[in-house]
């Protein structure tokens, strides 16, 4: 975790260690390399892949995985796992939509959606810390409950006609420049930076700051590294874990709002298996499922690898079935790398 | 002594199912005193120490600090009462570096509330140098350090803060001879500052060298509490192994006076 702080100082202290790049650095480097290879490969395979418009599409798609991945990273660093994020995403989106239908303005309705997510996360955290249920089981239960609730509340039907304002978060862009042409049709000069991408950047910076520079971040790492040692050192281990699960739930709620806003429809069946993408993003980015290791920047790289993989396979005309096979193999490969790292 | 003891443990009990790990043990510790806690493996020494450190909740018994009863729900409570502990397991977070471990739970912060890593590093450097001048790789994760270096971090963490009672559970188990001597000096120095020390050790030589008193545990029970000048190494060994003094025992210092 101190890998980015003062590399020069460290080099001076251990001249030999500087020559041998450590495992975390190799992992990060290989992830970036994979990313570049994917971009290069897909660009050759399809002309349309390497274009501004497709770049923005990838940015949009990745923002949802990225938001989920950041929350997942916090939970994974504490040594836990959150399988409920895909379902919580749906429940939050449905909650927001129902609030809008009930007459609430968009902004407070979205805040409510995020709160619903945080509430689900809090239940996860309490079940894990108070009832001492393993995170895998606790969040698996929440995965079923949140999905069931979303489907029950909506009768499994999508909620549409939510108004233009609801679609702004998912479809709007900053610095979008449109010029009216003489023939009366608008011409897009610059498509702008999509709001979801800006949101992702802000959340990523906030989370990285929290993990690196704040006390709670240090405690998250300590808890995952050695829970008993952290407890004996005076870290409030249960509160720390609760915090991580609440953050994961809240970010799933935010991701739900982004996704549903983009579709301008609340889909109770949206986000199935998204938890796997989020876990894959975190693990590809160097987070260790045994806890104590992980970074936001790594997870961002991981999220882009997953996002580009999905988008590129689509553009190359690979069927959805084959895509599943590829992503599945990538997930296993990433966890395998994690295992190899721990064995040494 | 007229002043109250720093800590008193009265009738402490701890059982795990049928196992009586600590069986009605009482103990006290005065300022500037080093008390050796001895016993065979599994005698219950670490359990007793963890109870005083707030890391384990006793089934029965009372703890008093400066004469007033306290109840420790977690290690923070004991730390606030000035009780610091070097655990037998060291209790270090492997992925964090030395400064992060030293200040874990008590991080130094800047005015904005951010972690002050620079100051924690500088402070760690100071306190670690006091114990091991060769300690240079402070910013490596502690998992990559040697057993002795890890032990030094655990010791440094216990003496850095405002300590009044120090629990040392086999603090020199992983240390080389020069580091062990350094810890012995440290113990004498802390003692002269008026700190009370509970020293768990299997090393009879260290115990006789450093301690004012010894208490001996056997199968969870307290079988002996003596001033160090009352007993010989053989007496203590007999207490540890058999749970009783040799049949013909008389206090050594009285013997000499006769
Ligand atoms: N968490 C626990 N759960 C169950 N039994 C325990 C636990 N901790 C300790 N014990 C038991 O309590 C007894 C005392 O253990 P303790 O660690 O206090 O021994 P010790 O005197 O410190 O031994 P050593 O010299 O080997 O460190 C042992 O029989 C041990 O098995
Ligand atoms: Mg012990």
TrEMBL record, chain A:
Compartments, as annotated in UniProt: Cell membrane
Record's GO cellular component terms: plasma membrane
Recorded superkingdom: Bacteria
Bilayer-crossing regions: 29-50, 56-76, 106-129, 136-159, 193-211, 242-259, 279-309, 316-337
Chief location category: membrane
Keyword Transmembrane attributed: yes
Keywords for the protein's UniProt record, in alphabetical order: Cell membrane, Membrane, Transmembrane, Transmembrane helix
CDD domains assigned to the protein according to its UniProt record, in alphabetical order: TM_PBP1_transp_AraH_like
InterPro entries to which the protein is assigned, alphabetical: ABC_transp_permease
Designated name of the protein: Monosaccharide ABC transporter membrane protein, CUT2 family
UniProt GO MF annotations: transmembrane transporter activity
The keyword Cell membrane is annotated on this UniProt entry: yes
Membrane-topology annotation of the record: Multi-pass membrane protein
Automatic annotation (TrEMBL), chain B:
Domain ABC transporter: 7-244
PROSITE patterns: ABC_TRANSPORTER_1 (PS00211), ABC_TRANSPORTER_2 (PS50893)
SMART domains on file: AAA
tRNA processing keyword on record: no
Entry keyword Translocase: no
Source organism, top-level taxon: Bacteria
This protein's UniProt keywords: ATP-binding, Nucleotide-binding, Repeat, Sugar transport, Transport
GO molecular function: ATP binding; ATP hydrolysis activity
InterPro entries: AAA+_ATPase, ABC_carbohydrate_import_ATPase, ABC_transporter-like_ATP-bd, ABC_transporter-like_CS, P-loop_NTPase
Annotated Gene3D superfamilies: P-loop containing nucleotide triphosphate hydrolases (3.40.50.300)
Pfam families per UniProt: ABC_tran
Name by which UniProt lists this protein: Monosaccharide ABC transporter ATP-binding protein, CUT2 family
Organism: Marinovum algicola
Organism lineage string: Bacteria, Pseudomonadati, Pseudomonadota, Alphaproteobacteria, Rhodobacterales
């Amino acid at each position: 975790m101190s890998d980015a702080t003062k590399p020069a100082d460290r080099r001076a202290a251990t001249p030999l260690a500087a020559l041998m790049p450590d495992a975390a650095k190799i992992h990060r480097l290989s992830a970036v390399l994979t990313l570049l290879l994917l971009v290069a490969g897909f660009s050759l395979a399809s002309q349309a892949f390497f274009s501004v418009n497709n770049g923005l599409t990838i940015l949009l798609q990745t923002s949802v995985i990225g938001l989920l991945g950041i929350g997942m990273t916090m939970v994974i660093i504490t040594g836990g796992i959150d399988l409920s994020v895909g379902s919580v995403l749906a429940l939050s989106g449905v909650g927001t939509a129902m609030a809008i239908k009930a007459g609430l303005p968009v902004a407070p309705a979205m805040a409510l959606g995020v709160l619903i997510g945080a509430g689900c996360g809090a239940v996860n955290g309490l079940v894990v810390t108070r009832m001492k249920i393993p995170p895998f089981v606790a969040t698996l239960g929440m995965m079923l409950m949140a999905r069931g609730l979303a489907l029950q509340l909506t009768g499994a039907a999508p909620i549409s006609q939510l108004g233009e304002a609801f679609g702004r978060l998912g479809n709007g862009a900053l610095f979008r420049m449109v010029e009216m042409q003489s023939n009366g049709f608008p011409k897009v000069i610059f498509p702008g930076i999509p709001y979801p991408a800006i949101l992702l950047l802000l959340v990523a910076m906030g989370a990285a700051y929290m993990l690196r520079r704040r006390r709670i971040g240090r405690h998250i790492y300590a808890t995952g590294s050695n829970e008993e040692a952290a407890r004996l050192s005076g870290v409030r281990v249960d509160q720390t874990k609760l915090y991580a699960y609440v953050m994961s739930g809240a970010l799933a709620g935010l991701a739900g709002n982004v996704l549903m806003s983009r579709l301008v429809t609340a889909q109770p069946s949206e986000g199935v298996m998204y938890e796997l993408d989020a876990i894959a993003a975190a693990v590809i980015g160097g987070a260790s499922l045994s806890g104590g290791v992980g970074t936001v920047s790594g997870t961002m790289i991981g999220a882009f690898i997953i996002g580009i993989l999905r988008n590129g396979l689509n553009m190359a005309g690979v069927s959805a079935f084959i895509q599943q096979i590829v992503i599945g193999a990538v997930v296993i490969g990433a966890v395998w790398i994690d295992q190899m790292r721990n064995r040494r | 002594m007229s002043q109250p003891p720093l800590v008193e443990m009265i009738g402490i009990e701890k059982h795990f199912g049928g196992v009586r790990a600590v069986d009605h043990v009482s103990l006290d510790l005065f300022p500037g005193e080093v008390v050796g806690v001895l016993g065979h493996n599994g005698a219950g020494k670490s359990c007793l120490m963890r109870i005083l450190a707030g890391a384990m909740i006793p089934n029965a018994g009372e703890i008093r600090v400066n004469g007033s009863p306290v109840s420790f729900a977690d290690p923070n409570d004991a730390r606030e009462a000035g009780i610091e502990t070097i655990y037998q397991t060291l209790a270090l977070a492997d992925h964090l570096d030395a400064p992060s471990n030293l200040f874990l739970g008590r991080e130094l912060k800047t005015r904005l509330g951010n972690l002050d890593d620079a100051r924690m590093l500088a402070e760690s450097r100071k306190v670690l140098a006091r114990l091991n001048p060769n300690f240079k790789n402070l910013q490596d994760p502690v998992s990559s350090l040697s057993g002795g270096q890890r032990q030094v971090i655990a010791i440094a963490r216990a003496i850095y803060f405002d300590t009044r009672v120090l629990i040392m559970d086999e603090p020199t188990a992983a240390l080389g001879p020069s580091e062990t001597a350094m810890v012995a000096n440290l113990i004498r120095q802390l003692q002269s500052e008026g700190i009370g020390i509970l020293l768990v050790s299997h090393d009879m030589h260290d115990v006789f060298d450093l301690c004012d008193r010894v208490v001996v545990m056997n199968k969870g029970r307290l079988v002996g509490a003596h001033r160090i000048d009352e007993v010989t190494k053989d007496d203590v060994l007999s207490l540890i192994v058999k749970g009783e003094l040799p049949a013909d025992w008389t206090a050594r210092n009285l013997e000499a006076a006769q």
